[in-house]
Amino acid sequence: MGRATGTPRGKALHRLAKVRELQGVSIRTMSRRMGVDARTVRREEDPENDIPLSVLYRWQKALGVPLIELLEETDEPLSAPVLKRARMVRLMKTAMAIFEQSRQPGVQRLAQNLVQQLIEMMPELEGVSPWHSVGQRRSQKELGRAALRRFSMNGR
């Protein structure tokens, strides 16, 4: 999979990364959904990377969006149904975070009811995880604290 022949450098061939981000799906989640490693996900979502149709179909299935959304740049960020789904996923993540982080039983019950109602409206929201609540999100190029720790082979 290389760059398209005759395609000017800097010309986007697809919108994989943009749609993934708008859907609120992490690289790690895409990796799991598609059964590939994170490096493959990053390589495939490079907008200048000329990828086969089979890869586009794999992404389409993993993101649950119309194939055209992965290809065509429009004035709108996403079509209405896809944008609605992305908003529902974000709402579900927020409801799950409130449910998990609240220490007040009343707030937990309200959040649990909200989660159940969202699942009734859109069953595929079941299993959506809450927003990350610990620390600040790192970019792909930043190392975590564990990468900076030293350890010795003798167990000290």
Question: How many alpha or pi helices?
Answer: 8
Name the average pLDDT.
81
Proportion of β residues? under 5%
Quickly give the structural class: mainly alpha
Give the ordered list of helices and strands: HHHHHHHH
> What is the alpha-carbon Rg in Å?
19 Å
Give a structural overview:
The structure is a single chain. The protein is an all-alpha fold and 156 residues long. The protein has two domains: 10-75, 434 Repressor (Amino-terminal Domain) (Orthogonal Bundle), CATH 1.10.260.40; 79-130. It is built from eight helices and no strands. Helix 2 packs across helix 3 and helix 6 (80-101) packs antiparallel against helix 7. The longest helix is centred in the middle third of the chain and has 22 residues, at 80-101. 17% of the residues are buried. The model is unreliable at 1-6 (pLDDT under 50).
Layout: helices, strands, pairs:
Blueprint lengths: L15 H8 L3 H8 L3 H7 L8 H11 L3 H5 L8 H22 L3 H17 L23 H4 L8
Question: What can be said about this structure in brief?
Answer:
The chain is an all-alpha fold and 156 residues long. It has helices at residues 16-23, 27-34, 38-44, 53-63, 67-71, 80-101, 105-121, 145-148.
